[in-house]
Design goal:
The protein is α/β, with parallel strands linked by helices and 373 residues long. The protein is built from 15 helices and twelve strands. It has two domains: 127 residues, Enolase-like, N-terminal domain (Enolase-like, domain 1, 2-Layer Sandwich), CATH 3.30.390; 237 residues, TIM Barrel (Alpha-Beta Barrel), CATH 3.20.20. It starts with a strand and ends with a helix.
């Protein structure tokens, strides 16, 4: 079997809807389709700038030592996944081993695993070694409201829809101590004592403030505190994790095993949030092995669309230490209508996708409606 064509399809909501969803990663998408001479088509995506990933895939040969990722794949056997990944990275070594090049390769890698699953008639989780989990307790992942009252109302909404855990994130967290505590207090009241509350600070504090907030948030029984510090503040993470009464989670922004190795060794985090769409199955598996060897629990990061949701389910199923699943609840058409499978949360749980490969089928009408030409 040989690869015959690589498509990079950019999607974007109309501009008036983009401005209304400025903080949402569900306002656009990059879809990679890898075609083969046996008619099998693999699908992948990345959590990145769709326009930039498309450029990396479609780029011509450059005298600076870069070759478009799509061109490198033509004629290669899609089942040689590790070999293909190595070629994509080494032929573009000047782009580095972190960041956006890893994100573009991640979209390709997901599509290659999708092809492998379809070829062998197995779900990807089976190819990864089998499932430790067939379903996960899911937490609704959503942004804070502007104040405690609105955050309370958002929490009630998702608990009423069957979630037993809710995570709030990003602004306006970090503006003041008073507002920080008001937001968390409103979130806890809305979620209720019987359910779990998770807080994503969105990298907003300095080290000393993060230590103080971790102590203050203890009274609200927070399951874990996510990204309280700048992603490069590794000394701060080490200091925070050594004294925090709340488990510290981070890592969603890391791409590639070299970036992750440095982060794991230096930060002292308790929970690694691995984004498959930033890394691909091949790298994510290597990263997760590393994290678990350090005694760090592995969970997913997910805030995109149905392709990413399916990929996360397959990946996390293969991790023994996984204990909860991030489930984006943004209600944009790209989030909800890109795949024909919705993969809903029922009674607080989301189930593993069965079927060959990713186990999903794209909604071509949605692609046609939002494709950028």
């Amino acid at each position: 079997m040989k690869i015959t064509r690589v498509e990079a399809i950019e999607l974007r909501l109309p501009e008036e809807e983009v401005s209304a969803n400025r903080s949402s990663a569900c306002q656009d998408a990059i879809i990679v389709k890898i075609h083969t001479d046996e008619g099998i088509v693999g699908v992948g995506d990345a959590l990145s700038s769709p326009h930039a990933v498309k450029a990396l895939i479609e780029a011509p040969v450059s005298g600076a030592g870069q070759i478009g990722l799509g061109k490198l794949l033509i004629g290669m056997n899609p089942l040689d996944i590790r070999t293909n990944n190595d070629v994509l990275m080494t032929k573009n070594i000047r782009l580095g081993r972190r960041g956006m090049v890893c994100q573009a390769i991640a979209a390709i890698d997901i599509a290659l695993w999708d092809i492998a699953g379809k070829y062998y008639q197995q779900p990807i989780y089976q190819l990864l070694g089998g499932a430790f989990h067939k379903k996960f307790r899911a937490y609704a992942s959503i942004l804070f409201g502007p104040d405690g009252k609105s955050t309370y109302e958002i929490a009630r909404c998702w608990v009423d829809k069957g979630f037993t855990a809710v995570k709030f994130g990003w602004a306006p967290m970090g503006q003041s101590e008073k507002l920080d505590l008001e937001l968390v207090e409103g979130a806890r009241r809305g979620v209720g004592d019987e359910n779990d509350l998770l807080i994503d600070a969105g990298c907003c504090w300095d080290t000393n403030t993060a230590i103080r907030r971790a102590q203050q948030f203890k009274d609200y029984n927070v399951l874990f505190l996510e990204e309280p510090l700048d992603r490069e503040n590794l000394q701060g993470y080490r200091k925070l994790t050594s004294v925090s009464p709340i488990p510290i989670a981070a890592g969603e922004g890391e791409s590639g095993r070299f970036a992750w190795r440095h982060f794991i060794e230096q930060s002292g985090i308790n929970i690694a949030q691995i984004d498959v769409e930033n890394n691909g199955f091949t790298e994510a598996t290597r990263i997760a092995d590393m994290a678990e060897d350090y005694g760090i629990r592995v969970i997913n990061h997910f805030y995109t669309n149905g392709i990413g949701l399916a990929a996360c389910l397959h990946f996390l199923a293969s991790r023994k230490s996984a204990f909860i699943f991030e489930y984006c609840v943004e209600e944009t058409p790209i989030r909800l209508e890109l795949t024909k499978q919705r993969m809903p949360v029922v009674d607080g749980y989301v189930e593993l996708v069965e079927g060959p490969g990713l186990g999903i089928e794209l909604n071509e009408e949605t692609i046609k409606r939002y494709q950028v030409y």
